[in-house]
Amino acid sequence: MFDAPSSLSPRQIWLGLLARASRERLMQLLDSAPPLPGFERLREPECGMAMIRGRMGGNGAPFNLGEMTITRCSIRDEAGRVGHGYAAGHDLEQVELVARLDAVLQDEVLFGAYDQAVLQPLAQAQAARRLETEARAKATEVKFFTLATMRS
Amino acid sequence: MKYFAPGFASPTDAQGCFRGILQALSTPGVVVPFTRPVGPPPGLSAAAASVLLTLTDSSVSASLPEGDDAARDWLVFHAGVRLAAPDAADFVLARDHLDLRQLRQGTDDAPEDGATLVLDVASLEAGRLYRLTGPGIETERRVMLPLADGFVTAWRQQAQTAPRGVDVIFCHEARILGLPRSLKIEEI
Questions:
Q1: How many CA atoms lie within 13 A of B83 on its CB side?
Q2: What total of structural domains would you count in chain A?
Q3: What is the pLDDT at residue A87?
Q4: Does the distance separating the beta carbons of B7 and A43 come in below 8 Å?
Q5: How does DSSP assign A43-59, residue by residue?
Q6: For residue A89, which of A101, A77, A98 has the smallest C-alpha distance?
């Protein structure tokens, strides 16, 4: 498992949290947050393909792993803040919510309220899910010994 | 701070503009209106913005004048176009006449690599009277064109290197006028 680079900016972190959350989850969390401001779409929500590239062992030569569906949207809200949303899958409403949240989260005054109502619960849930997956993987871990070690 | 504004409201608007550009280049000298142009960024006419956004994408390069930062941001955001110097770009936006010979001419094997000059002018009708002949015109067409001094001479020189050359699209408000390189222009 790769560790996320430690130099992620706060915006990268929240865009990651939002991109991994489903539309239902976002709408549910937004119920307890202040209403999002009105907005206009700079780029309509749209689906496309992205080529996923991998590196064997994390440092080999890059190779094309395959294509995946991604969806993106860009908006500008009433106060002129610009937000972008990108997520895997084809949920047009999810990326629009991500873009609208990205716009308000960049505002230092509004950040607190949305951080508490949306980001914190998402961060906790996603961290818990990750721990659970790691624990499940750990249970089936196989330790390899070389022949040389076993002889000695 | 980057400039952001919406692009075409719908893909069919872009298709309508593409149809208009085809019309303008196949009937040279006839003014073609865009019925649903894009809302332009500051500094561009609706017609010039529509032409650039319709024709460019990440596989071509464009050149916009120094200082048109809003228009550059807008075009790069929506089209993903590469910015280039005027002598290297596929699409060149200008407000004044440029020397056609400074733009990319293409090659005899690939004349389509010649640049397209998008001229955002103050009026489409001002200027002197010219006689146009060539493909797309049955006999001749007489129109007023806002051509700068020396344009007709440069145009005649370009005709000698056919099929290499530059195509020109004049833009004003939401209307365009096309001068494809195959056209013959004479002052009357």
A1: 12
A2: 1
A3: 96
A4: yes
A5: EEEEEEEEEEEEEGGGT
A6: A98
Q: What CATH number is given for B11-187 in this structure?
A: 3.40.50.11310
Interface test mutation site (partner A, options B4, B38, B57, max chain A beta carbons within 10 A): B4
Taking CA–CA distances from A42, the nearest residue in chain B reads: B6
Q: How far apart are CA A126 and CA A121, in angstroms?
A: 8
pTM for the model stands at 0.84
Domain around A116: 10-151
The residue of chain A nearest to residue B9, with distances taken between CA atoms, is A44
Whether residues A76 and B4 touch (CB distance < 8 A) is answered with yes
Q: Is A142 part of a structural domain of the chain? A: yes
Give the tens place of pLDDT for each residue, A91-106: 999 999 999 999 999 9
Is residue A2 domain-resident?
no
A–B CB contacts, 8 A cutoff, strictly below: 16
pLDDT exceeds 90 at position A142: no
